[in-house]
Amino acid sequence: MSTVFGHIEARDINISFKARSGTVQAVQSVSLHVQPGEFVSLIGPSGCGKSSLMNAVAGFTKVNGGSLLVDGKRISGPGSDRGVVFQQYSLFPWMTVRKNVEFGLKMKGVSQTQRQTQARTLLGLAGLLAFEDHYPSQLSGGMKQRVGIVRALATSPQVLLMDEPFGALDSQTRSVMQEILTNMWQRLRLSVLFITHDIEESIFLSDRIYVMTARPGRVKAEIAVPLPRPRKPEMMETPEFVALVREIKQLIREESLAAMGSELSQGGCEGLSMEVGPAGVSHVL
Ligand SMILES: Nc1ncnc2c1ncn2[C@@H]1O[C@H](COP(=O)(O)OP(=O)(O)OP(=O)(O)O)[C@@H](O)[C@H]1O
């Protein structure tokens, strides 16, 4: 199935928040794009504005400047063309797995038979059909998050927005979830914008990665991942993969150190010994 929808375009985006201490500039002059059917990750130091950007694409947060378009339309609020998955499972505990998945379709007025068919097809793709009548409390963390993904996909969005969806899972479950997600993404050919702190995860999953600077978040680097698909966990040991990990780690380290350096100097830690590196990066000794 060829994809023609799901194009995200952010041009010169600024996002700021009013805080008690003044205005917090979270994101500054960010331009990025996701092509239809592409898998793109955002990675960067903590607090660099990744979630703010994603919330803006989801329509939960307003931008203060620039333009943010999905399929050429300016984003003015949440919409069923964009599915969202957060780290917290956010399932309705009083509903069965299938009813959770059907919820968005019910809200759209889809008939019961159609809802059930759509939910069961997607649950089958995620290996969860045998659990359709279970309640969330009867599922493991990995299963809950699979239900969360299936629920976000139920209304057939063109775009899937995922904010650290596997952050709460153990590494073994996380690795299985990565494979399940890539399989589903390849079948459904939708666009994915994915936030993670895990460099290996971002490389394993993505076609491209945007590395952000420390706050205010700007795009520091855009990295294409030239690894073939389907991706297999063994690829993580190839020289190409290892080289990408090293490159991204270095980029993020520079930013984390820069952020830490400014926090320490603002916090009056002058007594700490600091060494300034060649790129003006402060290294705490
Ligand atoms: N609603 C808000 N009000 C005030 N400040 C906010 C709000 N939301 C985010 N911020 C601030 O904006 C900055 C960016 O936050 P954001 O959550 O987008 O970063 P992040 O890169 O997703 O962080 P992390 O990786 O730790 O999840 C932070 O300094 C945060 O405290």
UniProtKB/TrEMBL annotation:
InterPro entries: AAA+_ATPase (IPR003593), ABC_transporter-like_ATP-bd (IPR003439), ABC_transporter-like_CS (IPR017871), ABC_transporter_ATP-bind (IPR050166), P-loop_NTPase (IPR027417). The keyword Transcription regulation does not apply. PROSITE patterns: ABC_TRANSPORTER_1, ABC_TRANSPORTER_2. GO terms for molecular function: ATP binding. Keywords: ATP-binding, Cell membrane, Membrane, Nucleotide-binding, Transport. Gene3D superfamilies: P-loop containing nucleotide triphosphate hydrolases (3.40.50.300). SUPFAM superfamilies: P-loop containing nucleoside triphosphate hydrolases. It comes from the Bacteria. Residues 10-239 form the ABC transporter domain. PANTHER family: ALIPHATIC SULFONATES IMPORT ATP-BINDING PROTEIN SSUB (PTHR42788:SF13), TAURINE IMPORT ATP-BINDING PROTEIN-RELATED (PTHR42788). Belongs to the ABC transporter superfamily. This is ABC transporter ATP-binding protein. It comes from Herminiimonas contaminans.
